[in-house]
């Protein structure tokens, strides 16, 4: 049994001065995940000296942290199946499901108790998936797409399928292609981006940096990342690309193209809001092609998902204005 509300007040001592708010709170409240605390901070349920702040605020001695937020359910609380969340299933068999995820749907719960995710929808249709994988909150999930992105995902219905698909992703034998529209003119018709990716200093997004694991300019959590692209179509202020990822780092495509000065259209996290950018109702990032080896039969499985109507409309507008 857990309490339904968390209410407390904490004072920062001299030894803790300079530490990040979210990291310090996670140490003070070990039963709360850092990601959940960040959500509470952003929602204004955690304040510093009576003011709303950001999770990466540097603390000062004497700061008073007030916490007045809903408590988290236990980490092992079962997920709620959600049959009301519609699924676009392209393939299903006894071991594997391929789904075309819409933009706006998060793949799995970020914190215990979240229930409006793809995993919740999948559990309503495939309840046996509840025990598949390494983490109950990510039942059956082998790879992910950002909430704002759309497109193809392969999901495991059995543990043997999960283990085999996971190995394919680790060995970079899964083929993934994305349709991406970026702001700006991409110089090369085709190229490969090799920039390591790690958490940025603000903690809100990822940062892409040149080099490899041994480079002194990389931080401890930076990991090598490789993105291939070629130009499909050019517009006066935008470039339409096909992108293939060799690695699968968090926000890899978004971080790589942002670092090169070509943010993905509709990216409110990485794009420069002050610059003149194409109006977009969503992130223009769609996984359009996915192929892998079936984990049981050994058959080559290949799938395609056309651009959603809202992205087709954006391209049509650009073509009409050209």
Features:
Pseudouridine synthase, single chain, Structural Genomics Hypothetical 15.5 Kd Protein In mrcA-pckA Intergenic Region, Chain A, 6 helices, 4-stranded antiparallel beta sheet, 10-stranded mixed beta sheet, 322 residues, 14 strands, alpha+beta
Radius of gyration: 21 Å
Q: What CATH architecture label of the largest domain applies?
A: 2-Layer Sandwich
**Structural class of the helices, strands and pairings?**
alpha+beta
Strand content: 25-35%
Residues in helix, %: 10-25%
Question: Mind explaining what this structure looks like?
Answer:
The protein is of the alpha+beta class and 322 residues long. It has three domains: 5-70, RNA-binding S4 domain (Structural Genomics Hypothetical 15.5 Kd Protein In mrcA-pckA Intergenic Region, Chain A); 89-171, Pseudouridine synthase; 178-287 and 316-321, Pseudouridine synthase (2-Layer Sandwich). It contains six helices and 14 strands. It has helices at 21-28, 34-42, 118-125, 159-170, 252-259, 309-321, and strands at 5-11, 46-48, 51-52, 64-70, 89-92, 96-101, 150-156, 175-183, 190-199, 206-210, 226-234, 238-245, 285-293, 300-304. The longest helix has 13 residues, at 309-321.
């Amino acid at each position: 049994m857990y309490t339904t509300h968390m209410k407390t007040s904490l004072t920062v001592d001299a030894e803790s001065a300079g530490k990040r708010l979210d990291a310090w709170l996670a140490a003070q409240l070990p039963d709360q995940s850092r990601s959940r605390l960040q959500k509470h901070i952003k929602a204004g349920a955690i304040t510093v000296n009576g003011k709303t702040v950001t999770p990466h605020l540097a603390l000062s001695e004497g700061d008073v942290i007030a916490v007045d937020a809903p408590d988290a359910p236990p980490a092992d609380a079962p997920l709620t199946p959600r049959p009301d969340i519609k699924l676009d299933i392209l393939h299903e068999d006894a071991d594997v499901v391929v789904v075309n995820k819409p933009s706006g749907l998060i793949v799995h719960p970020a914190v215990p108790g979240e229930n409006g995710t793809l995993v919740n929808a999948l559990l309503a249709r495939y309840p046996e998936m509840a025990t598949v994988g390494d983490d109950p909150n990510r039942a059956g999930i082998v790879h992910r797409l950002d909430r704002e992105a759309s497109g193809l995902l392969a999901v495991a219905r059995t543990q043997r399928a999960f283990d085999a698909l996971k190995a394919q992703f680790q060995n970079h034998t899964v083929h993934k292609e994305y349709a991406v529209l970026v702001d700006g003119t991409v110089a090369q018709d085709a190229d490969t981006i090799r920039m390591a990716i790690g958490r940025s200093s603000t903690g809100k997004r990822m940062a892409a940096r040149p080099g490899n694991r041994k480079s002194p300019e990389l931080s401890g959590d930076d990991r090598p990342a490789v993105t291939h692209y070629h130009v499909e179509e050019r517009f006066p202020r935008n470039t339409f690309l096909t992108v293939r990822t060799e690695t699968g780092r968090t926000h890899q495509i978004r971080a790589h193209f942002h670092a090169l000065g070509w943010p993905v259209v509709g990216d409110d996290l990485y794009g420069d809001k002050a610059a003149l950018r194409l109006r977009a109702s969503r992130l223009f990032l769609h996984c359009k092609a996915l192929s892998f080896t079936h984990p049981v039969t050994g058959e080559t499985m290949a799938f395609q998902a056309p651009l959603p109507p809202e992205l087709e409309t954006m391209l049509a507008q650009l073509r009409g204005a050209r």
